[in-house]
Amino acid sequence: xxxxxxxxxxxxxxxxxxxxxxxxxxxxxxxxxxxxxxxxxxxxxxxxxxxxxxxxxxxxxxxxxxxxxxxxxxxxxxxxxxxxxxxxxxxxxxxxxxxxxxxxxxxxxxxxxxxxxxxxxxxxxxxxxxxxxxxxxxxxxxxxxxxxxxxxxxxxxxxxxxxxxxxxxxxxxxxxxxxxxxxxxxxxxxxxxxxxxxxxxxxxxxxxxxxxxxxxxxxxxxxxxxxxxxxxxxxxxxxxxxxxxxxxxxxxxxxxxxxxxxxxxxxxxxxxxxxxxxxxxxxxxxxxxxxxxxxxxxxxxxxxxxxxxxxxxxxxxxxxxxxxxxxxxxxxxxxxxxxxxxxxxxxxxxxxxxxxxxxxxxxxxxxxxxxxxxxxxxxxxxxxxxxxxxxxxxxxxxxxxxxxxxxxxxxxxxxxx
Length: 417
Fold this sequence. Notes:
alpha/beta, D-Maltodextrin-Binding Protein, domain 2, 2 domains, 4-stranded mixed β-sheet
Protein backbone atom coordinates (compact mmCIF):
# COMPACT_ATOMS: atom_id res chain seq x y z
CA UNK A 1 0.00 0.00 0.00
CA UNK A 2 1.51 3.37 -1.05
CA UNK A 3 2.11 6.14 1.46
CA UNK A 4 -0.54 8.38 -0.08
CA UNK A 5 -3.27 5.76 0.42
CA UNK A 6 -2.11 5.05 3.97
CA UNK A 7 -2.28 8.76 4.72
CA UNK A 8 -5.82 9.02 3.38
CA UNK A 9 -6.93 6.01 5.45
CA UNK A 10 -5.37 7.45 8.61
CA UNK A 11 -7.11 10.76 7.96
CA UNK A 12 -10.47 9.01 7.52
CA UNK A 13 -9.94 7.06 10.76
CA UNK A 14 -9.01 10.24 12.59
CA UNK A 15 -12.10 12.03 11.32
CA UNK A 16 -14.32 9.13 12.34
CA UNK A 17 -12.82 9.02 15.82
CA UNK A 18 -13.07 12.78 16.12
CA UNK A 19 -16.65 12.75 14.95
CA UNK A 20 -17.51 10.04 17.47
CA UNK A 21 -15.96 12.07 20.26
CA UNK A 22 -17.87 15.16 19.19
CA UNK A 23 -21.09 13.20 19.30
CA UNK A 24 -20.24 11.91 22.77
CA UNK A 25 -19.38 15.41 23.89
CA UNK A 26 -22.82 16.57 22.78
CA UNK A 27 -24.40 14.30 25.40
CA UNK A 28 -24.98 15.78 28.85
CA UNK A 29 -23.84 13.32 31.50
CA UNK A 30 -25.59 13.53 34.86
CA UNK A 31 -23.80 12.03 37.82
CA UNK A 32 -26.24 10.49 40.29
CA UNK A 33 -24.83 9.52 43.69
CA UNK A 34 -27.08 7.30 45.81
CA UNK A 35 -27.14 4.14 47.94
CA UNK A 36 -30.34 2.83 46.35
CA UNK A 37 -28.98 0.70 43.51
CA UNK A 38 -27.18 -1.79 45.81
CA UNK A 39 -30.35 -2.22 47.88
CA UNK A 40 -32.54 -3.02 44.87
CA UNK A 41 -32.66 -6.21 42.77
CA UNK A 42 -29.68 -6.33 40.42
CA UNK A 43 -30.17 -4.33 37.24
CA UNK A 44 -33.55 -2.85 38.18
CA UNK A 45 -32.39 0.71 38.90
CA UNK A 46 -30.11 0.82 35.87
CA UNK A 47 -33.09 -0.25 33.76
CA UNK A 48 -35.02 2.80 34.98
CA UNK A 49 -32.08 5.04 34.04
CA UNK A 50 -31.96 3.46 30.58
CA UNK A 51 -35.64 4.24 30.18
CA UNK A 52 -35.03 7.86 31.20
CA UNK A 53 -32.22 8.15 28.66
CA UNK A 54 -34.47 6.75 25.92
CA UNK A 55 -37.09 9.40 26.76
CA UNK A 56 -34.50 12.18 26.91
CA UNK A 57 -32.07 11.87 23.98
CA UNK A 58 -28.80 13.66 24.65
CA UNK A 59 -28.88 13.06 28.43
CA UNK A 60 -26.96 10.18 29.99
CA UNK A 61 -26.98 9.08 33.63
CA UNK A 62 -23.84 7.85 35.36
CA UNK A 63 -24.79 6.03 38.55
CA UNK A 64 -22.36 6.40 41.43
CA UNK A 65 -23.55 3.72 43.82
CA UNK A 66 -22.37 2.47 47.18
CA UNK A 67 -23.49 1.53 50.69
CA UNK A 68 -25.36 4.16 52.70
CA UNK A 69 -22.40 5.16 54.88
CA UNK A 70 -19.96 5.40 51.99
CA UNK A 71 -22.45 7.39 49.92
CA UNK A 72 -23.01 9.78 52.80
CA UNK A 73 -19.26 10.37 53.14
CA UNK A 74 -18.97 10.96 49.39
CA UNK A 75 -21.85 13.45 49.31
CA UNK A 76 -20.63 15.26 52.43
CA UNK A 77 -17.17 15.63 50.86
CA UNK A 78 -18.72 16.87 47.63
CA UNK A 79 -20.79 19.42 49.53
CA UNK A 80 -17.69 20.75 51.28
CA UNK A 81 -15.62 21.02 48.10
CA UNK A 82 -18.27 22.07 45.58
CA UNK A 83 -17.93 18.81 43.66
CA UNK A 84 -21.26 17.21 44.55
CA UNK A 85 -22.82 15.02 41.87
CA UNK A 86 -25.55 16.65 39.75
CA UNK A 87 -28.24 14.56 41.42
CA UNK A 88 -27.87 13.15 44.93
CA UNK A 89 -29.74 10.73 47.11
CA UNK A 90 -30.46 12.42 50.44
CA UNK A 91 -31.31 11.50 53.99
CA UNK A 92 -33.48 14.18 55.55
CA UNK A 93 -31.02 14.53 58.44
CA UNK A 94 -28.37 15.88 56.04
CA UNK A 95 -30.45 18.58 54.40
CA UNK A 96 -30.09 21.39 56.93
CA UNK A 97 -26.30 21.31 56.88
CA UNK A 98 -26.14 21.13 53.09
CA UNK A 99 -28.49 24.08 52.71
CA UNK A 100 -26.41 26.12 55.14
CA UNK A 101 -23.34 25.31 53.02
CA UNK A 102 -25.18 26.40 49.88
CA UNK A 103 -24.68 22.96 48.36
CA UNK A 104 -28.25 22.18 47.30
CA UNK A 105 -30.21 23.93 44.58
CA UNK A 106 -33.72 25.17 45.30
CA UNK A 107 -36.10 22.58 43.87
CA UNK A 108 -38.86 25.16 44.25
CA UNK A 109 -37.11 27.27 41.63
CA UNK A 110 -36.43 24.30 39.36
CA UNK A 111 -40.06 23.18 39.59
CA UNK A 112 -41.19 26.71 38.75
CA UNK A 113 -38.83 26.93 35.77
CA UNK A 114 -40.14 23.60 34.46
CA UNK A 115 -43.81 24.47 35.18
CA UNK A 116 -43.99 21.30 37.29
CA UNK A 117 -47.21 20.60 39.21
CA UNK A 118 -46.13 19.57 42.71
CA UNK A 119 -49.63 18.63 43.87
CA UNK A 120 -48.85 14.94 43.36
CA UNK A 121 -45.83 14.96 45.69
CA UNK A 122 -46.55 13.22 48.99
CA UNK A 123 -44.04 15.40 50.85
CA UNK A 124 -41.40 18.09 50.36
CA UNK A 125 -38.56 18.92 52.73
CA UNK A 126 -38.35 22.71 53.00
CA UNK A 127 -36.13 25.28 54.66
CA UNK A 128 -36.84 28.98 54.55
CA UNK A 129 -39.89 28.36 52.40
CA UNK A 130 -37.98 26.56 49.62
CA UNK A 131 -37.90 22.83 48.85
CA UNK A 132 -34.48 21.18 48.83
CA UNK A 133 -35.39 17.49 49.07
CA UNK A 134 -38.25 15.38 47.76
CA UNK A 135 -38.92 11.93 49.27
CA UNK A 136 -38.88 9.51 46.33
CA UNK A 137 -40.01 6.42 48.24
CA UNK A 138 -41.03 6.18 51.89
CA UNK A 139 -40.58 3.57 54.57
CA UNK A 140 -43.41 4.28 57.01
CA UNK A 141 -43.73 3.31 60.70
CA UNK A 142 -47.20 1.93 61.54
CA UNK A 143 -48.14 -0.19 64.58
CA UNK A 144 -47.44 -3.93 64.50
CA UNK A 145 -49.86 -6.04 66.58
CA UNK A 146 -49.48 -9.68 67.62
CA UNK A 147 -52.94 -11.04 66.78
CA UNK A 148 -52.61 -14.27 68.76
CA UNK A 149 -51.79 -12.36 71.94
CA UNK A 150 -54.57 -9.88 71.20
CA UNK A 151 -57.15 -12.61 70.65
CA UNK A 152 -56.03 -14.47 73.77
CA UNK A 153 -56.69 -11.29 75.74
CA UNK A 154 -60.21 -11.10 74.30
CA UNK A 155 -59.48 -8.04 72.14
CA UNK A 156 -61.00 -8.31 68.67
CA UNK A 157 -59.50 -5.29 66.89
CA UNK A 158 -56.27 -3.32 67.00
CA UNK A 159 -56.49 -0.23 69.22
CA UNK A 160 -57.39 3.02 67.48
CA UNK A 161 -57.20 5.49 70.37
CA UNK A 162 -54.69 6.06 73.15
CA UNK A 163 -57.07 4.77 75.81
CA UNK A 164 -57.67 1.61 73.77
CA UNK A 165 -53.92 1.19 73.30
CA UNK A 166 -53.21 1.56 77.03
CA UNK A 167 -55.97 -0.92 77.85
CA UNK A 168 -54.67 -3.40 75.27
CA UNK A 169 -51.09 -3.04 76.53
CA UNK A 170 -52.28 -3.82 80.07
CA UNK A 171 -54.29 -6.83 78.89
CA UNK A 172 -51.38 -8.19 76.88
CA UNK A 173 -48.82 -7.84 79.66
CA UNK A 174 -48.11 -11.15 81.41
CA UNK A 175 -45.04 -11.08 83.65
CA UNK A 176 -45.18 -14.82 84.27
CA UNK A 177 -44.89 -15.53 80.55
CA UNK A 178 -42.35 -12.72 80.01
CA UNK A 179 -44.73 -10.81 77.72
CA UNK A 180 -45.15 -7.01 77.67
CA UNK A 181 -47.82 -4.94 76.00
CA UNK A 182 -45.56 -2.44 74.23
CA UNK A 183 -41.85 -1.99 73.56
CA UNK A 184 -40.14 1.41 73.72
CA UNK A 185 -36.48 1.65 72.62
CA UNK A 186 -34.73 4.59 74.30
CA UNK A 187 -31.05 3.82 73.76
CA UNK A 188 -28.86 6.91 74.07
CA UNK A 189 -26.48 5.34 71.56
CA UNK A 190 -29.22 5.12 68.93
CA UNK A 191 -31.79 7.71 70.05
CA UNK A 192 -34.14 7.39 67.07
CA UNK A 193 -36.74 5.95 69.44
CA UNK A 194 -37.54 9.57 70.32
CA UNK A 195 -38.47 10.14 66.68
CA UNK A 196 -40.23 6.87 65.89
CA UNK A 197 -41.72 5.81 69.21
CA UNK A 198 -42.26 9.02 71.20
CA UNK A 199 -42.91 12.01 68.93
CA UNK A 200 -44.93 9.76 66.65
CA UNK A 201 -47.72 9.98 69.26
CA UNK A 202 -47.71 13.76 68.86
CA UNK A 203 -47.87 13.61 65.06
CA UNK A 204 -50.55 10.88 65.06
CA UNK A 205 -52.95 13.40 66.59
CA UNK A 206 -52.04 16.26 64.27
CA UNK A 207 -49.67 17.90 66.79
CA UNK A 208 -46.24 19.44 66.39
CA UNK A 209 -43.08 19.81 68.48
CA UNK A 210 -42.25 23.07 66.66
CA UNK A 211 -43.73 26.56 66.33
CA UNK A 212 -42.63 28.76 63.44
CA UNK A 213 -39.71 26.41 62.87
CA UNK A 214 -38.45 26.69 66.45
CA UNK A 215 -38.57 24.21 69.37
CA UNK A 216 -41.90 24.29 71.16
CA UNK A 217 -41.89 21.82 74.03
CA UNK A 218 -42.65 23.85 77.15
CA UNK A 219 -46.37 24.48 77.51
CA UNK A 220 -47.16 22.55 74.32
CA UNK A 221 -50.37 20.65 75.06
CA UNK A 222 -49.76 18.13 72.25
CA UNK A 223 -46.30 17.20 73.48
CA UNK A 224 -47.38 17.20 77.14
CA UNK A 225 -50.32 14.86 76.54
CA UNK A 226 -48.13 12.43 74.54
CA UNK A 227 -45.34 12.16 77.11
CA UNK A 228 -47.84 11.93 79.98
CA UNK A 229 -49.53 9.09 78.11
CA UNK A 230 -46.23 7.24 77.77
CA UNK A 231 -45.38 7.95 81.41
CA UNK A 232 -48.71 6.40 82.42
CA UNK A 233 -47.89 3.18 80.56
CA UNK A 234 -44.38 3.15 82.02
CA UNK A 235 -45.76 3.49 85.55
CA UNK A 236 -48.31 0.75 84.83
CA UNK A 237 -45.48 -1.66 83.96
CA UNK A 238 -46.80 -2.52 80.50
CA UNK A 239 -43.64 -1.42 78.64
CA UNK A 240 -40.97 -4.06 77.99
CA UNK A 241 -38.18 -4.05 80.61
CA UNK A 242 -34.86 -2.37 79.83
CA UNK A 243 -36.37 0.38 77.69
CA UNK A 244 -33.52 2.81 78.41
CA UNK A 245 -30.97 0.57 76.70
CA UNK A 246 -33.08 -0.96 73.93
CA UNK A 247 -32.29 -0.14 70.30
CA UNK A 248 -34.54 -0.44 67.25
CA UNK A 249 -33.19 -3.88 66.33
CA UNK A 250 -33.86 -5.05 69.89
CA UNK A 251 -37.44 -3.87 69.59
CA UNK A 252 -37.97 -5.89 66.41
CA UNK A 253 -36.41 -8.97 68.00
CA UNK A 254 -38.70 -8.73 71.03
CA UNK A 255 -41.78 -8.53 68.81
CA UNK A 256 -40.58 -11.26 66.45
CA UNK A 257 -40.03 -13.66 69.34
CA UNK A 258 -43.52 -13.04 70.73
CA UNK A 259 -42.37 -11.28 73.89
CA UNK A 260 -44.14 -8.02 72.98
CA UNK A 261 -47.72 -7.51 71.89
CA UNK A 262 -47.35 -4.19 70.03
CA UNK A 263 -44.59 -2.06 68.56
CA UNK A 264 -44.18 0.92 66.25
CA UNK A 265 -41.78 -0.05 63.48
CA UNK A 266 -40.73 0.32 59.87
CA UNK A 267 -42.75 -1.33 57.15
CA UNK A 268 -39.42 -2.69 55.93
CA UNK A 269 -39.47 -5.11 58.88
CA UNK A 270 -42.50 -7.07 57.65
CA UNK A 271 -40.44 -9.45 55.52
CA UNK A 272 -37.72 -9.69 58.18
CA UNK A 273 -40.28 -10.79 60.79
CA UNK A 274 -41.80 -13.29 58.38
CA UNK A 275 -38.39 -14.72 57.61
CA UNK A 276 -37.36 -15.10 61.25
CA UNK A 277 -40.72 -16.31 62.60
CA UNK A 278 -43.02 -17.59 59.83
CA UNK A 279 -45.59 -18.70 62.42
CA UNK A 280 -46.08 -15.24 63.94
CA UNK A 281 -49.63 -14.01 63.32
CA UNK A 282 -49.51 -10.23 63.21
CA UNK A 283 -51.31 -7.26 61.67
CA UNK A 284 -50.65 -3.62 60.78
CA UNK A 285 -52.65 -0.62 62.00
CA UNK A 286 -52.42 3.16 62.23
CA UNK A 287 -50.91 4.85 65.26
CA UNK A 288 -53.64 5.45 67.85
CA UNK A 289 -54.74 9.05 68.18
CA UNK A 290 -55.67 11.04 71.27
CA UNK A 291 -59.23 10.29 72.34
CA UNK A 292 -61.62 12.59 70.52
CA UNK A 293 -59.21 13.44 67.68
CA UNK A 294 -60.82 12.79 64.29
CA UNK A 295 -58.44 14.50 61.84
CA UNK A 296 -55.86 12.89 59.57
CA UNK A 297 -53.10 11.01 61.39
CA UNK A 298 -49.44 11.76 60.98
CA UNK A 299 -47.33 8.74 60.10
CA UNK A 300 -43.60 8.69 60.96
CA UNK A 301 -41.37 7.72 58.06
CA UNK A 302 -37.88 7.52 56.63
CA UNK A 303 -37.22 8.23 52.96
CA UNK A 304 -34.95 7.89 50.03
CA UNK A 305 -34.81 11.60 49.29
CA UNK A 306 -33.46 13.32 46.21
CA UNK A 307 -31.89 16.71 45.52
CA UNK A 308 -29.96 18.65 42.91
CA UNK A 309 -26.49 20.09 43.52
CA UNK A 310 -26.04 23.85 43.46
CA UNK A 311 -22.70 23.36 41.69
CA UNK A 312 -24.31 21.36 38.87
CA UNK A 313 -23.94 22.91 35.42
CA UNK A 314 -27.00 20.96 34.24
CA UNK A 315 -29.69 21.74 36.79
CA UNK A 316 -32.53 21.80 34.26
CA UNK A 317 -31.54 18.36 32.99
CA UNK A 318 -31.06 17.14 36.56
CA UNK A 319 -34.60 18.23 37.33
CA UNK A 320 -35.84 16.17 34.36
CA UNK A 321 -34.39 13.09 36.07
CA UNK A 322 -36.06 14.01 39.37
CA UNK A 323 -39.39 14.60 37.61
CA UNK A 324 -39.04 11.23 35.83
CA UNK A 325 -38.55 9.41 39.14
CA UNK A 326 -41.50 11.26 40.67
CA UNK A 327 -43.91 10.55 37.79
CA UNK A 328 -46.83 8.31 38.75
CA UNK A 329 -45.76 5.38 36.56
CA UNK A 330 -42.05 5.38 37.41
CA UNK A 331 -42.69 5.98 41.09
CA UNK A 332 -45.05 3.01 41.18
CA UNK A 333 -42.36 0.79 39.70
CA UNK A 334 -39.60 2.06 41.97
CA UNK A 335 -41.68 1.74 45.14
CA UNK A 336 -42.66 -1.78 44.06
CA UNK A 337 -39.10 -3.02 43.70
CA UNK A 338 -38.05 -1.21 46.89
CA UNK A 339 -40.95 -2.61 48.97
CA UNK A 340 -41.72 0.95 49.98
CA UNK A 341 -44.51 3.47 49.58
CA UNK A 342 -44.45 5.98 46.76
CA UNK A 343 -43.55 9.65 46.86
CA UNK A 344 -46.27 10.36 44.29
CA UNK A 345 -49.78 10.28 45.76
CA UNK A 346 -51.17 8.82 42.52
CA UNK A 347 -48.74 5.89 42.48
CA UNK A 348 -49.59 2.39 43.69
CA UNK A 349 -46.93 -0.26 44.33
CA UNK A 350 -47.65 -3.70 42.92
CA UNK A 351 -47.35 -5.53 46.25
CA UNK A 352 -50.48 -3.92 47.74
CA UNK A 353 -52.52 -6.03 45.30
CA UNK A 354 -51.06 -9.32 46.48
CA UNK A 355 -49.99 -8.91 50.11
CA UNK A 356 -52.57 -8.42 52.86
CA UNK A 357 -50.21 -6.76 55.34
CA UNK A 358 -48.75 -4.33 52.83
CA UNK A 359 -52.27 -3.55 51.63
CA UNK A 360 -53.34 -2.71 55.19
CA UNK A 361 -50.27 -0.53 55.66
CA UNK A 362 -50.96 1.21 52.35
CA UNK A 363 -54.48 2.00 53.53
CA UNK A 364 -52.99 3.58 56.67
CA UNK A 365 -50.65 5.55 54.42
CA UNK A 366 -53.44 6.80 52.15
CA UNK A 367 -55.63 7.91 55.06
CA UNK A 368 -52.90 9.82 56.89
CA UNK A 369 -49.97 12.04 56.06
CA UNK A 370 -46.20 11.68 56.29
CA UNK A 371 -44.89 13.28 59.48
CA UNK A 372 -41.31 13.51 60.68
CA UNK A 373 -40.38 16.93 62.03
CA UNK A 374 -36.78 15.90 62.69
CA UNK A 375 -36.23 15.77 58.94
CA UNK A 376 -34.42 18.92 57.86
CA UNK A 377 -33.52 20.02 61.39
CA UNK A 378 -29.91 20.77 62.38
CA UNK A 379 -28.08 17.85 64.10
CA UNK A 380 -31.32 15.85 64.23
CA UNK A 381 -29.81 12.88 66.04
CA UNK A 382 -28.33 15.16 68.71
CA UNK A 383 -31.75 16.72 69.24
CA UNK A 384 -33.20 13.28 69.88
CA UNK A 385 -30.46 12.54 72.39
CA UNK A 386 -30.97 15.87 74.18
CA UNK A 387 -34.67 15.06 74.56
CA UNK A 388 -34.02 11.46 75.54
CA UNK A 389 -31.78 12.12 78.55
CA UNK A 390 -34.24 14.18 80.65
CA UNK A 391 -37.15 12.10 79.31
CA UNK A 392 -35.67 8.99 80.92
CA UNK A 393 -35.35 10.84 84.22
CA UNK A 394 -38.98 11.93 83.90
CA UNK A 395 -40.14 8.37 83.24
CA UNK A 396 -38.15 7.13 86.22
CA UNK A 397 -39.76 9.70 88.48
CA UNK A 398 -36.53 11.60 89.09
CA UNK A 399 -37.64 14.75 87.28
CA UNK A 400 -40.90 16.66 86.98
CA UNK A 401 -42.59 17.16 83.63
CA UNK A 402 -41.98 20.91 83.35
CA UNK A 403 -38.32 20.60 84.30
CA UNK A 404 -37.77 17.84 81.75
CA UNK A 405 -39.36 19.82 78.92
CA UNK A 406 -37.51 23.01 79.91
CA UNK A 407 -34.14 21.25 79.87
CA UNK A 408 -34.88 19.64 76.51
CA UNK A 409 -36.12 22.88 74.95
CA UNK A 410 -33.11 24.91 76.13
CA UNK A 411 -30.77 22.28 74.72
CA UNK A 412 -32.64 22.32 71.41
CA UNK A 413 -32.58 26.10 71.18
CA UNK A 414 -28.80 26.00 71.42
CA UNK A 415 -28.71 24.01 68.20
CA UNK A 416 -31.14 26.26 66.36
CA UNK A 417 -29.08 29.45 66.79
